[in-house]
Specification:
The protein is mainly alpha-helical and 395 residues long. The protein has a domain of 181 residues: MetI-like (MetI-like fold, Orthogonal Bundle), CATH 1.10.3720.10. It contains 16 helices and two strands. A two-stranded antiparallel sheet has the order 1-2. A hairpin with a 5-residue loop joins strand 1 and strand 2. Helix 13 packs antiparallel against helix 16.
Length: 395
């Protein structure tokens, strides 16, 4: 009964959110009420509500599909993978332990009920969840003597489950592994890479636009084309070889800053190409705009036009890219982490997939979806706030 109440509550919340967003966008709720109409008349607020609503639905669909797809396999094989020395266990002990594992993994009951249970666990509100552990004890000859059952409880805001099949993290909580053990490494390298790509990519794009078809512009375009033409993994190994030849450490070590530079610079030099290309195109459009032509007709110098008018408007792509770049730095890159031996989040995703660890996969999907959606939303809202040419009032 409690499970169905949870499921109905989730469905009701989703339907209410959808109806509320549609109603606000179409003005159903404030017809004849000037105060409410004034609150929701802001086009930026309406745009944000629509984006938040569609993002919420997208996250729910992604979680539901992932949850059902990765559980489409035999539950007995899951128990055998999770239980050490299961061959030596009596059938009743194995069945007891297997039942406990299925309950903790949410593999009991109907598929819809399992999804509802998982949504209850990841909804962000305080909750206390308990798990039961049954261990088979053996004597000196390796014979099973008896079992001990321990009940562990913990307070959660959001519970992403426990890891069962990844060596080194078995029985650890997914939320701890992601945010404590893995994400800090990815974020440390990612933030240095963001600083590098913005500090080099943006000025490079400005110089390429200012000296269009000059030697610097040709070198920049050749570099961008080269990055697009070479496979990413090969490009990463090229930079690793360069860093190794100049004596920079290429093996990551926690707490040693020099070991951060090679992977961060590899990511930064890759990302700066896209930023430089984007800024170059944006500034060339600005150079051909009417207000620049009018400024030239007034007799303003090229430097004044450049730094007073064009460069200020060209800050828009930079401002827009900062939120998404910072948030995406949390996720890491599998290839970079693999090449430089970084124990980050990107490698955890591949390991969880190969080990068929349900909660680890789902936890990464939830975190990645939330970060992606929030980064895009923040980028669009920041663009609408800083760029007066963006209008959200149209239908």
């Amino acid at each position: 009964m409690a499970l169905f109440l949870i499921g109905y509550t989730i469905i009701a919340l989703v339907l209410f959110l959808v109806v509320f967003i549609i109603g606000v966008s179409r003005g159903w709720f404030f017809k004849g009420n000037a105060k409410i109409k004034a609150i929701f008349a802001n086009p930026l607020l309406l745009y944000s509500l629509r984006r938040i609503g569609s993002a919420f639905i997208s996250v729910m669909l992604a979680i539901t599909c992932t949850y059902l797809l990765i559980r489409a396999q035999s539950t007995d094989s899951i128990c055998k993978a999770a239980i050490a020395n299961w061959i030596k266990m009596p059938e009743d002990v194995f069945a007891l332990r297997c039942t406990t594992i299925k309950e903790e993994l949410g593999l009991t009951g109907s598929a819809i009920g399992q999804v509802f249970t998982y949504f209850y666990r990841i909804l962000p509100f305080p909750k206390t969840l308990c798990s039961t552990e049954t261990n088979a004890l053996t004597d000196a000859l390796g014979n099973i003597t008896y079992t001990v059952t321990a009940r562990n409880c913990r307070n959660f805001i959001m519970d992403l489950g426990k890891i069962y099949f990844i060596n080194g993290f078995k029985n650890a909580y997914v939320i701890d592994v992601i945010f404590v053990n893995k994400m800090p490494h990815s974020f440390r390298i990612g933030m240095i890479a963001v600083i590098v790509e913005l500090a080099i990519g943006y000025p490079a794009g400005v110089m390429m636009a200012k000296r269009k078809d000059g030697i610097f512009d040709k070198i920049g375009k050749a570099y961008i084309i080269t990055i697009d033409a070479i496979p990413g993994i090969a490009y990463y190994y090229i930079w690793m070889t360069i860093f190794m030849l100049i004596g920079l450490p290429i093996t990551y070590a926690d707490g040693e800053f020099l070991t951060y530079l090679a992977p961060a610079l590899t990511m930064g030099f890759t990302g700066m190409a896209g930023i430089a290309l984007w800024v170059r195109r944006f500034m060339l459009d600005e150079f051909n705009s009417d207000y620049v032509k009018f400024a030239r007709a007034k007799g303003l110098s090229e430097n004044r036009i450049m730094f007073t008018h064009v460069l200020r408007n060209a800050l828009v792509p930079l401002v827009r890219s900062i939120p998404s770049s910072i948030l995406y730095a949390l996720l890491g890159s599998f290839y970079i982490e693999k090449i430089y031996s970084i124990p980050g989040l990107g490698g955890l995703l591949v390991t969880a997939n190969s080990a068929n660890d349900f909660y680890a996969l789902q936890g990464i999907v939830v975190v990645s979806a939330l970060i992606s959606i929030v980064s895009y939303l923040l980028g669009d809202i920041v663009t609408a706030m800083v760029d007066p040419r963006v209008s959200l009032s149209g239908k």
